[in-house]
Design brief:
It is a single chain. The chain is mainly alpha-helical and 367 residues long. It has two domains: 189 residues, no CATH class; 173 residues, no CATH class. It is built from eleven helices and two strands; from the N terminus they run ααααααβαααααβ. Strands 1-2 form a two-stranded antiparallel ribbon. The chain starts with 8 loop residues before the first helix and ends with a strand. About 1% of the residues have low confidence.
C-alpha cells in the first residue's frame, strides 16, 4: 500500500456516495422506500443492499476471472488516486513494461469499479444502521451493526488480496466473506407476516442446518478451486483425466500458507495438488446435492407456501451442476464461470431466507 494511498479516500467516497444515491433514488421512485414505517424502511434498505451486494459478488468473480485483481496494485485507490483516469500515466508506464502483465487500463477500470460498488454497499449499510437506530428496533439494529462490522472486515480482506498479491487463502476468505454478507442481509429482508403450512419440526431444522453447512463447505471448496486456477486440472466428466481415482497430492493441494502457484517452500505447485483440489470439489458436490435435496423435500412437505421455494432451490442446484460441468467440458468459459458464482450466491440468499423464517415463525419469505 502506498504511503500516500489514503489521499484517494475522499474521491472514492464521493464516487461510492453517488452510486448509493442513484440506487436510493431509483428505490424511492419505485416506491420501495416511500410510505413505509421505520422498521419496514430498514427491511427495504436491506433488500436494496442485498441486490447490490449480489451484483458485487458476481462482479468480484469477474474481477478475479479476468485477472484484474491487481489492475491497481495499491489500495484503496489506484496509484494513490481515485480513478484510472487520474492514474493514466502510471498505468501506461506499467503496461509498457509488461504489456501482458496485471496492470492495464481495462483491468484497472474493472478493479476500481469493484471497489466503487463495494464502497456503495458499505454506505448503504451505514444508512441501515442509522435507520434501525431511528426505528428503535433492537434486533434490526443488532443485525445492521453486525453487517457493518462484517463489511469493514471485508474491506480489510480486499486490501490484503492486493497487498499480498492474490494469496489464495486470502482471496478465498474474501469470497466467503462476500457470501456471508449476502446471508446477513438476507436475514434482514423478509417481512413479518403470517406463514401458512405445517409448523417446522426437528427434521426441518436439521435439514436446514445441514444444507447451510454443506453450502458453506462447497463454496469454500469452489473458491479454493478458482483461486488456485485448478478448474481445468481434471479434464472430462465424470472421470478425471480418464481415471476414476487419479494421482493426487492432498497435503500440498490443501496447504493454505502459500503463494499462488507455489508450495509452502516456494517451489512450483505440482499438478497432482491441483487435481486433488478439483477432485475434492467434485466429490463433495454429491454430498451438497443430497443436503439440498433433503431440504427441498422437507420444504415440499410443509405445504403450498413452501413448495415454490423448494422448486427454486432445486432449480438453482441443477443450474450449478450445468455450469460446473460447462466449466470443465468447455474449457472454463467466462459466462459459465460467472453463472456458477451467481448460482452459489443465489443459494446463499435462499438459505438466508429460510433461516430468517426459522428464527421468526411469523416471517413470510418472498421468493
Amino acid at each position: 500500500m502506498r504511503a500516500d494511498g489514503w489521499s484517494s479516500l475522499p474521491g472514492l467516497v464521493s464516487i461510492a456516495l453517488a452510486i448509493a444515491s442513484i440506487a436510493l433514488m431509483i428505490a424511492w421512485w419505485r416506491g420501495g422506500l416511500r410510505r413505509k414505517s421505520r422498521p419496514q424502511r430498514v427491511a427495504a434498505l436491506a433488500g436494496l443492499t442485498l441486490f447490490l451486494c449480489f451484483d458485487l459478488v458476481v462482479f468480484g468473480a469477474y474481477t478475479r476471472l479476468s485477472d484484474s485483481g491487481l489492475g491497481c496494485p495499491d489500495w484503496p485507490g489506484c496509484y494513490a488516486t481515485s480513478s484510472p483516469v487520474a492514474a493514466a500515466e502510471h498505468i501506461a508506464h506499467a503496461q509498457a513494461l509488461a504489456p501482458e502483465g496485471p496492470v492495464t487500463q481495462k483491468k484497472a477500470w474493472i478493479e476500481m469499479i469493484h471497489r466503487y460498488f463495494a464502497g456503495a454497499v458499505m454506505l448503504l449499510i451505514v444508512l441501515m444502521v442509522i435507520a434501525a437506530a431511528q426505528a428503535r428496533h433492537a434486533r434490526a439494529l443488532a443485525l445492521a451493526g453486525v453487517s457493518l462490522a462484517w463489511v469493514i472486515g471485508q474491506a480489510m480482506f480486499g486490501a490484503l488480496t492486493v497487498t499480498w498479491k492474490l494469496y489464495p487463502a486470502i482471496v478465498t476468505g474474501h469470497l466467503l466473506g462476500g457470501m456471508g454478507l449476502l446471508a446477513l442481509l438476507a436475514l434482514q429482508v423478509p417481512r413479518a407476516e403470517t406463514v401458512g403450512g405445517t409448523p417446522r419440526g426437528a427434521l426441518d431444522r436439521w435439514a436446514l442446518g445441514l444444507a447451510a453447512l454443506a453450502l458453506l463447505l462447497q463454496i469454500a471448496l469452489g473458491g479454493w478451486v478458482s483461486t488456485n486456477y485448478a478448474v481445468l486440472a481434471c479434464t472430462g466428466f465424470p472421470r478425471c483425466n480418464g481415471q476414476w481415482w487419479p494421482a493426487m497430492n492432498w497435503s500440498e493441494g490443501f496447504s493454505f500458507a502459500r503463494e499462488l502457484g507455489r508450495r509452502a517452500d516456494g517451489a512450483p505447485i505440482a499438478m497432482t495438488a491441483l487435481v486433488a483440489i478439483q477432485w475434492m470439489h467434485r466429490l463433495f458436490a454429491v454430498v451438497f446435492t443430497a443436503a439440498m435435496g433433503w431440504l427441498a423435500a422437507r420444504l415440499w412437505r410443509r405445504g403450498a407456501p413452501s413448495r415454490r421455494r423448494a422448486v427454486i432451490i432445486l432449480a438453482v442446484v441443477v443450474v450449478q451442476w450445468a455450469t460446473g460441468l460447462s466449466n470443465v467440458v468447455l474449457g472454463w468459459p467466462l459466462v459459465a464461470a460467472l453463472a456458477h458464482t451467481a448460482g452459489a450466491a443465489a443459494l446463499v440468499i435462499c438459505i438466508g431466507f429460510e433461516v430468517a423464517a426459522a428464527l421468526n415463525p411469523r416471517t413470510r419469505v418472498s421468493s
